[in-house]
Amino acid sequence: MLKLIIIQLLLAIVYASSDLKDKWGSLWQFQGIATFAHLDQFQCLVEPNKDFDIGIIGVPFDTAVSYRPGARFGPRAIRDASQRQYSLRGYNQRAHFNPYQSWATINDCGDIPVTPMDNHLAFKQMDLAFEELLLSRNSAIDSKLPPRFIALGGDHSVLLPHIRALHKIYGRLNILHFDAHLDTWSPEKYPSYWRSDQNDLSHGSMLWQANEEGLTTKNNVHVGVRTRLTDIGDYEDDDSQNWLRIEADDIWLKGPQYVVDKILETIPKNTPTYISVDIDVLDPGNAPGTGTHEAGGFLPRELIHLLRSVDDLTIVGADVVEVAPAYDISEITALNAAQVVFELLTSMVKKGKLSRDLISKEVKVF
Ligand SMILES: [Mn+2]
Question: Using one digit for the tens of pLDDT, what is the confidence trace for 202-218?
Fold first, then answer.
């Protein structure tokens, strides 16, 4: 008799909770706690046994900027601006595909707790965090593969720890870099007399540092360049680091197909590629909320079109950086950044799971 009562009680609890879920579980897009695109979330750094295929990871670090700070608030702003995205209405009409309802388990991994007080320590934290995330986690679809990450910056220097860790798995990477600036400046190009290891690593020099460390291939492309230069020597230094530059004006003077063709001629599609999107590639009219804005940039539709047109590249990691919401107007910058994440996510899922052959033979963990 007692057994029967217990069973009836348990059933009542189960029914009541599913009733409650039906009643109160469906939120509108503007409600609830903001994870990226309403994705499930757990802090991936502290949950080593939960597998996923693609993680959205915030890197709220902005103490390596040379002009306006504020990108430490970027991850939160991008998450907030992504709320119109969710799995039920996640169909990407440009790609004819819904990345949120496919094979990939996608998770909002929370943030890396980076210190704002000490850049030396901050880079150590970011190096260790990306190593932990990439070398000590398995993807859900295949335990012999690591997960992939789209990082939400943060200033652009957060690219370096991400590609350092990726290099340990895949070897040298092609970099497809959307930006108004080169970010290949050697520390000597900066005006200050004062030098230190921390001072030398900034959001304008991390690609120079990546080249020094041998992380990149010879197949790297800047897209959207319209930077201020010391002199033409800056372009020569960039050449010597194996970069092809596509100027911002090329999109309208030579056309979008020219830009797409140049990218695809330079980057072999089945080799490990990292896509980095500095939101300042957009015109300040479409991205006022950024640290180092330059007049004469891309329209959002141009950036989206380019990203969609290279969706067959083998993207092993990506970032969207330099969103500084304190300078933003009506969430326009963060909204565009959230859309960029959606496009990158679509491309990663659409291409399918990565081939195990991409992983360097020296890597023992997979
Ligand atoms: Mn940049």
Answer: 999 999 999 999 999 99
- Expressed in angstroms and rounded, the spacing between residue 342 Cα and the centre of ligand 1 is 20
131 CA to centre of ligand 1 in angstroms: 23
- Domain residue ranges of the chain, discontinuous segments joined by +: 31-354
CATH topology of domain 31-354: Arginase; Chain A (3.40.800)
Buried b (16+ CB within 10 A) or exposed e, 327-353: bbeebbbbbbbbbbbbbbbbbbbbeeb
Distance between Cα 196 and ligand 1 center (Å)? 21
Residues with CB under 5 A from ligand 1 (ion): 156, 179, 181, 183, 278
For ligand 1, the distance from its centroid to the CA atom of residue 234, given in whole angstroms, is 15
On the question of pLDDT at 272 being above 80, the answer is yes
Q: How far is the CA of 224 from the centre of ligand 1 (A)?
A: 11
Count of residues for the chain? 366
pLDDT at 326: 98
pLDDT confidence of residue 365: 72
Q: In this predicted structure, what is the pLDDT of residue 150?
A: 98
What pTM was computed for the model?
Answer: 0.95
| Residue in 41, 56, 126, 32 with CA at minimum distance from that of residue 338 | 56
